[in-house]
Amino acid sequence: MALPTLRIIAFINGIFLITLAVSMVVPMFTLVIFERAHELNAYLWSSLITFVAGLAMVAHGHPQGVELRPRDMYMLTVSSWLLVCIFAALPFMLAQHMSLADAIFESMSGITATGATVLSGLDSMSPGILIWRSLLHWLGGIGFIAMAVAILPMLRIGGMRLFQTESSDRSDKVMPRSHMVAKYMIAAYVGISLLSFLAFWAAGMGVFDAINHTMSAIATGGFSTSDSSIGKWSQPAVHWVSVLVMILGSLPFVLYVSMLRGNFQALLRDQQVRGFLAILLSTWLALGTWYSLTTELHWLEAVRHVAVNTTSIMTTTGFALGDYTLWGGFAGMLFFYLGFIGGCSGSTAGGLKIFRFQVAYILLKANLLQLVHPRAVIKQQYNQHRLDEDIVRSILTFSFFFTITIAALALALTLCGLDWITALSGAASTVSGVGPGMGPTIGPAGNFSSLPDTAKWLLTAGMLLGRLEILTVLVLLMPAFWRH
Fold first, then answer.
1. What phi, psi does 220 have (nearest 5°)?
2. Of 149, 203, 264, 279, which is most buried, counting CB atoms within 10 Å of its CB?
């Protein structure tokens, strides 16, 4: 890779680090409000180290007349997420005195909006650490949306190329210029965040808790200010607000752009959104009815418990209202499946994404019809647009490597001494971005703190792979990438 290209990548990464350093003012300001100024030193040093590192990378300047090629975006994407994760771990090490493995795990979980944690005793924890964890979610959520619009299309694995089949707009962009798209998407993200905060506050949360859960829910992350997660609040209004915000974070933000520009039916007309809501609502009704019949809960109470937990899992957020792994084998298996589905493409949610399942159904149906009518010309469409071979190939490739990654990671985790349920659910939950796994160790009532450091490093890698759509990272391992 040429030196001017590396200088551009370093320059952009330096801007990211400077932004991260400035964002560390938020936990400092929080500590001042809570009159815990004696804890400021850890964040001051973290911010200073991050700022100096970013300034050193920016100091060489942007080489004039040199532009990044699409292949260079692979290096930029992976390096930026890794660097931000490493420097975002500094407050965990300096303020919370966490080990390197724990700090990087928590940081990666935050910035990728996974929600897996090694921390406990959250109810009495420093407000600086709590707000920093949630802020990482919020920054990671908006960062992934920006990546989906600006970078993934060039990598030919996601972003706007996939929105072409998900929206009624067949153009390369929703708006003529990318910076205008980003402007509207940021406006939508910030606007929904503000409304969510007001809703949580009005529903019964305190201001600090409402801010934290807003940033966590809109980013579909899952970090909470309590070990009991959303279950700490008994008000049904809090639970329903969390459900609504998680759903809003799981819808394609590019369609919010269309709505802001006057196309108010963009969400309702989108095939992916309709499929996502249909699966979610049918799961609420079916599992809620089953849960009310197997417990003494009223049907509406059962549906509320189911709605919070199933929405949390399917949107890969990770909030929990009670320990749903105690509901029995049927519910546990259903939750495990829902984590793979995920939300919509172009949202903050993880997982395989709804549209891949919809496209797979279209292909299966077309192949079955071809067997019945061998000479028939069968039209394959998604959102009223033809499914071309390039998109189908990218979907099948990603789905294959998604499955292989989980299988390989789970196998590696068993070599670390984990039982198969913990290993498989841990691999699936981190790659999908769900957060909590299954079983007593890493389930919704536990955390990842008791796992060996090797397992934590493996799961940290799984979070990065899952968040960056796997292929973005794997391509860097190819010798052909490094040849001029």
1. 45, 50
2. 149
